[in-house]
């Protein structure tokens, strides 16, 4: 079925607002039910009580939270890092590295996206050297050979586009320079540090991941020995501070407005500091919604996460598709009036069209009480 070929419905009943996410009837809470994330047809229902005010929630659909800070073991290879979440289209790992990678890595399963959560490092790859630090997205095309030499402990969220690739979102009416100018995408350089790295002596092993298994190829020299390159395919770096989020003073934009990277079956979005909505009738927190087509994952990088309570940097929440969710009760008190002028948060969101499975890494650091944070309160 082609997108947009929906059953034509247009109706309304009872007390409701004419404008989504604004001018709610007094004493009500809005809930959006939509198709294809936030891109398809939607309905908006107005409830007397918060739609997440449950007294209990049992079963595998429950919302989950993981404290990835608890994954303390560091590994020299990204392929030894614990898998947090995965499906046939993506694999999410959380990796800690404390010294230079002893071997090179190559992902033959798909494009790799590294999000640097903590620390700084030199990344050496086929194309040269790139300096990376906290808040950087590092895109590595499928098949790229690379290694990291960190200054100290490095913490990395890894997001694989399995058997696929990453692209940038269509900015439509906003134009190609909105959100971030493509000129902000930095590529590796062949500098003196890279050239010196080429002449390190000894054997060099390359650990190649394909279909989830790792093969090792050993060379008697450093295989990162390119003297130059040109073309339209290369690793790139983009820092979250280079992202200028789309704003609306009168309407709370959906998460899809903050899309940073696209793959075939999932998207990666970035929440960055922005002013709150100023229109008195506009809601100023994420709206309650049924995202029945996408699993939603949020990794909290830095700042004050205004829609969540008791969530700290380095934690991850996972909301499987199929249940209503939205802001915590503490945030709900500020639905129409905020005590600050702007948000102060950096977070990475992964929305997947196919259900995610929980990996052993996440299962070991789950906060089982997270589901109770929405319980109805007096």
Radius of gyration: 22 Å
N- to C-terminal distance: 46 Å
* Assembly state (oligomeric): single chain
> What is the count of DSSP helices, taking H or I runs of 4+ residues?
3
Largest sheet: 7 strands, antiparallel
Task: Summarize the helix and strand pattern as letters.
Answer: EEEEEEEEEEEEHEEEEEEEEEHEEH
Strand content: 35-45%
Low-confidence stretches: none
Secondary structure tally: strands: 23
Helicity range of the residues? under 10%
Structural class designation: mainly beta
Name the overall outline: elongated
Characteristic terms for this protein:
378 residues; mainly beta; 35% strand; elongated
Q: How would you explain this protein's 3D organization?
A:
The chain is mainly beta. Helix content is 4%, strand content 35%. It is built from 3 helices and 23 strands. It has helices at 192-198, 329-332, 360-363, and strands spanning 29-34, 42-47, 64-67, 83-86, 90-97, 104-107, 110-118, 120-125, 128-133, 136-140, 145-150, 154-162, 204-210, 213-219, 236-239, 259-262, 266-271, 288-291, 295-304, 315-319, 324-325, 344-352, 357-358. The strands form 4 sheets. Strands 15-10-7-12-5-4-23 form a 7-stranded antiparallel sheet. Strand 13 and strand 14 form a beta hairpin. The protein is elongated and about 75 Å long. The N and C termini lie far apart (46 Å). The model has no long low-confidence stretch (mean pLDDT 94).
